[in-house]
Recover the amino acids of this structure.
């Protein structure tokens, strides 16, 4: 079977930037499963996997517009320190917030005096992504997977230890930040379309 719409594909991958630095890898987490054609992963990667079969390996180059988008200065804003109330903001801290572009993950970039600079760009925005992937398996999706818009592991939606994958993950059922998608991703527009899942756990079983 080949990767196509309505198949569940498992891949191992390494993601590098233009300088060859490893940004992310499936590594110890094991293969990442996704539902092909359901916007679980960034479009450029999905296009590169289309038509591959188990055992196939490939390098896939993904430009920003087919990855996490171009870097936008419009997503950088300053807010007063007082906006954080009793919380103490720190550079690098991330949180979800409603913005004029919808719900975004904001990163605290800078704190100067009473002014805090927030960046709503994805950490990989504006970057060309170099994926080395290997297809581990391709299977037909189950009906419930098609209706939920994501793959199910043994034990049902988000079962089987798939939840809680680390920040910066390339996906996975319950990753919430830096994710390329997946069941509970809240960050990417493509992932948002799947809906149904909050960052505290999946809303389906
Ligand atoms: Zn589900």
């Amino acid at each position: 079977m080949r990767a196509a719409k309505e198949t569940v594909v498992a891949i191992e991958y390494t993601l590098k930037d233009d300088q060859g630095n490893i940004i992310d890898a499936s590594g110890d987490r094991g293969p990442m499963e996704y539902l092909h054609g359901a916007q679980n992963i960034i479009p450029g990667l999905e296009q590169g996997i289309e038509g591959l079969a188990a055992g196939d390996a490939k390098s896939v180059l993904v430009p920003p517009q087919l990855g996490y988008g171009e870097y936008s200065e419009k997503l950088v804003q300053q807010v007063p320190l007082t906006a954080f109330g009793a919380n103490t903001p720190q550079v690098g801290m991330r949180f979800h917030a409603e913005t004029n572009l919808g719900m975004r993950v904001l990163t605290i970039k800078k704190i100067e005096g009473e002014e805090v600079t927030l960046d709503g760009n994805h950490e990989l925005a504006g970057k060309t992504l170099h994926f080395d992937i290997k297809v581990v398996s391709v299977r037909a999706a189950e009906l419930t997977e098609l209706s939920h818009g994501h793959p199910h592991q043994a034990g049902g939606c988000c079962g089987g230890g798939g939840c809680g994958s680390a920040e910066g993950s390339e996906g996975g059922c319950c990753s919430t930040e830096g994710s390329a998608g997946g069941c509970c991703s809240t960050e990417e527009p493509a992932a948002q379309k799947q809906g149904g899942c909050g960052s505290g756990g999946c809303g389906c079983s």
